Amino acid sequence: MPQSLENKVVLVTGANRGIGRVIAETALQRGAAKVYAAVRTLSSAQPLVDQYGDRVVPIRADLNDPQSIVDAAASATDVDIVINNAGIIRPSELLSEGAIETLNDEINVNVSGLIRIAQAFAPNLKQQGGGVLVQLNSVASVRSFADFATYAASKAASYSITQALREKLADQGTQVISVHPGPIDTDMAGEAGLTEIAEPPSLVADGIFDAIQSGAFHVFPDSMARQVWEAYQGFAAAVIEPQDSATA
């Protein structure tokens, strides 16, 4: 169900910095009529407002705060495209005492947050004729890394939920997209010590909007991600992507 971005209304969680900000800017540059900058602190979206004026509407949404997401959906009833970019990574030694607490924090934001977004915004997208739901997952959703094992586990779970949402929302005409970046040049990559191999956030933004236009489900936008995709795409094409596959 390919869709155009022209004159659409887009909501981006975590739009104040990093990948989210670039996604918001790219949406506007590609012809979106309006972007809801969904952020935890409204003032953090002011630079976008300063640059793009009333085409940017700050709206409070915290994936850790279910009521804020419900309230955001009640305000953004005209949204056509919801891009859930926000997430957390907290590197933790897997065998340390704090690993389970870290995992629970990442699951709450990266997995439960996605479900909250889908529950709140699916009716809005249906009202707009179907629309698009985009989830930022990670290459770590299909291949774990020892130093980021809890994060990888949370992203594997969010990828699983994204697949289910694609099936569930198909009847209302909603296109669902799963995005799997490798290291991207953001504050999060810096905190994880991945700056030297990180690539520009524009690769992610362009990959998302190209997928909206083409109708693709998977996006593996950067060099590391494409290497993973080369090995994974055969399985994905045979098992993940068919909409009529039987339930295992």
From TrEMBL:
EC number(s) per entry: 1.1.1.100
Keywords: Oxidoreductase
Class of enzymatic activity (EC top level): oxidoreductase
Keyword Oxidoreductase among record annotations: yes
Ketoreductase domain residues: 8-187
Gene3D superfamilies with a match to the protein in the record: NAD(P)-binding Rossmann-like Domain
Protein family per UniProt: Belongs to the short-chain dehydrogenases/reductases (SDR) family.
Name the record gives this protein: 3-oxoacyl-[acyl-carrier-protein] reductase FabG
